[in-house]
Amino acid sequence: MKNLTYFLIAFTILTFIIGGCKKDEDGDTTKPFIELLGYDPVYTPVGLPYVDAGAIAWDVTMEGDTVDITDRMVTTDNVNVNLAGNYEVTYNVTDEAGNAADERKRSVKVVIGK
User: Fold this and answer.
1) Separation between Cα atoms, residue 61 and residue 20, nearest integer Å
2) How many domains does the chain have?
3) 34: exposed, middle or buried (Cβ count in 10 Å: 0-12, 13-18, 19+)
4) Is 81 in contact with 50 (CB distance < 8 Å)?
5) Tell me: the pLDDT tens digits for 43-58?
6) What is the b/e burial string over 91-106, where b = at least 16 CB atoms within 10 angstroms of the residue's CB?
7) What is the spatial distance between Cα 10 and Cα 96, in angstroms, rounded to a whole number?
8) How confident is the model at residue 113 (pLDDT cuts 50, 70, 90)?
9) Strand 55-60 and strand 74-77: pairing?
10) CATH code of the domain containing 99
11) Is residue 2 part of a domain?
12) Cα separation, 103 vs 74, whole angstroms
């Protein structure tokens, strides 16, 4: 009986040690998020330079920390300020775990000004 008690204690301790050291099988599955800065839509006159207000990107780590990952953001800008029309600026970002944020778009309207 005494040996069985020692075995159960050792087994319990070993189970806690192995369970505590086990790597997270699921990994980081939380998508980062993008926040547009400035207005949407934006109106800009034909012929004048367009300067986008930009966006910032955030990610929540597996530890629950929120980190700025704006430096990883990819922006696509097809605005032609010489031709009146509707254009888009697109923002995308992927975190270190490979999770992609929901793409964000800003509408840019190039208009004939006074």
Assistant:
1) 19
2) 1
3) buried
4) yes
5) 999 999 999 999 999 9
6) bbbbbeeebebeebeb
7) 39
8) confident
9) unpaired
10) 2.60.40.10
11) no
12) 10
Q: What is the pTM of this model?
A: 0.72
Q: Is residue 93 a contact partner of residue 34, using CB atoms and an 8 Å limit? A: yes
Establish if 62 belongs to a structural domain.
yes
Residue 25 inside a domain? The answer is: no
Concatenated DSSP letters of the chain: -HHHHHHHHHHHHHHHHHHHH---SS---PPPEEEE-S-SSEEEETTS------EEEEEE-TTS-EEE-GGG-EEEE---TTS-EEEEEEEE-B-TT-PBPPPEEEEEEEE---
Q: Which amino acid is at 76?
A: T
In a domain, 72, yes or no: yes
Cα distances from 100 to residues 33, 75, 97, in angstroms, run 9, 14, 9
The β-bridge partners of 88 are 107
